């Protein structure tokens, strides 16, 4: 799941790069695009967005939980097509939930965490890139109590998602939600973007959590 203002096209090159890895050629990448809607921090102008965003500097200003849940429902429909074998190209082959990774960048990483941490069935893992934990004041009560591999990557010079929020989010997942050593935190000297070292590390992680 892409970030604010982006589309699936923005991550197509990364998916292709990962897919060229011999060890990952069995993996199917599904790249959805968020709906277009008004965004508060964009002065109310419309853009692709998984939910409305009020602030990136004060997460206690409130979060658009209803918007998050609406997008989550749409993405779960895509996941259901994978698990029931009805997605184009699967030819009826069903992908079990424990073989599905929920991944996203920035706002998309919020969605990946919200969905994975509250999923009734245990996913293969969550990959949260340059992002923050959603609904942090109530996530403990929402957490499904499943634990599984968790990959977080963050730029230490990110001007949009402050490093301290990413660090705090990771510590919360690792300690408060009980993921322990299943949670991996990766840091890179990069802005609000992806870098080659991060994608290499993500590929290695995917090899482990979704083996052939």
TrEMBL record:
Q: What does it catalyze? A: S-hexadecanoyl-L-cysteinyl-[protein] + H2O = L-cysteinyl-[protein] + hexadecanoate + H(+); a monoacylglycerol + H2O = glycerol + a fatty acid + H(+); a diacylglycerol + H2O = a monoacylglycerol + a fatty acid + H(+)
Q: What class of enzyme is it?
A: hydrolase
List, in alphabetical order, the Gene Ontology terms for molecular function in this entry.
Answer: carboxylic ester hydrolase activity; palmitoyl-(protein) hydrolase activity
Sorted keywords for this record are:
Fatty acid metabolism, Hydrolase, Lipid metabolism, Serine esterase
Into which family does the record put it? Belongs to the AB hydrolase superfamily. AB hydrolase 2 family.
Question: What function does the entry list?
Answer: Hydrolyzes fatty acids from S-acylated cysteine residues in proteins with a strong preference for palmitoylated G-alpha proteins over other acyl substrates. Mediates the deacylation of G-alpha proteins such as GPA1 in vivo, but has weak or no activity toward palmitoylated Ras proteins. Has weak lysophospholipase activity in vitro; however such activity may not exist in vivo.
- The protein here is known as Acyl-protein thioesterase 1
Write down the species.
Malassezia globosa (strain ATCC MYA-4612 / CBS 7966)
Q: What is the lineage of its organism?
A: Eukaryota, Fungi, Dikarya, Basidiomycota, Ustilaginomycotina
